[in-house]
Amino acid sequence: MAYETIDGQKYEKELLELARKHTTGRGEGKLSKDEVAELFKSAQDGPGVTETEKNTLAYIRDTFEFTDAAAADFDAAFAKL
Fold first, then answer.
1. Which residues contact 29 (CB under 8 A, 6 or more apart)?
2. Minimal CA–CA distance to 58: which of 38, 39, 45, 33?
3. In the predicted structure, residue 67 carries a pLDDT above the cut 90
4. Which one, of 48, 56, 52, lies nearest residue 80 by Cα?
5. Strand 3-6 vs strand 9-12: parallel, antiparallel, or unpaired?
6. Residue 28: its pLDDT value, please?
7. Largest Cα–Cα distance in the chain?
8. How far from chain centre, in Å, is Cα 42?
9. CA atoms of 24 and 65, how far apart (whole Å)
10. Which of 2, 3, 53, 59 could form a disulfide with 43 if both were Cys (CB 3.0 to 4.6 A apart)?
11. What pLDDT is attached to residue 25?
């Protein structure tokens, strides 16, 4: 698993790249419901969601913009981790 360090904190590179990919280029620059589902699917790729993956998801929630529906889905999914 590859990591990226931001402000001294280690995050999962794959999740960050996925969020960046979905918020650059075409579109409104916000994560959608489908993209949030893809983020959580990626985070759950192993036997469980690691602390680094949880921290990365929290960073994504704090840093990236979401549609209102996607934000609600994200918060509900994150609460179940």
1. 23, 65
2. 39
3. yes
4. 48
5. antiparallel
6. 78
7. 34
8. 9
9. 11
10. 53
11. 73
Amino acid identity for residue 37 in this structure: A
What is the 8-class DSSP label of residue 44?
T
Confidence (pLDDT) at 45: 87
Q: Judge whether residue 66 has pLDDT over 90.
A: yes
Contact 35, 56 (CB under 8 A): no
Q: How far apart are CA 18 and CA 15, in angstroms?
A: 5
Do 3 and 9 meet the contact criterion of CB atoms below 8 Å apart? no
d(CA 3, CA 69): 29
The pTM of this model reads 0.94
- How many whole angstroms separate alpha carbon 15 and alpha carbon 57? 8
Q: Please write the tens of the pLDDT for every residue from 6-62.
A: 999 999 999 999 999 999 877 679 999 999 999 999 999 888 899 999 999 999 999
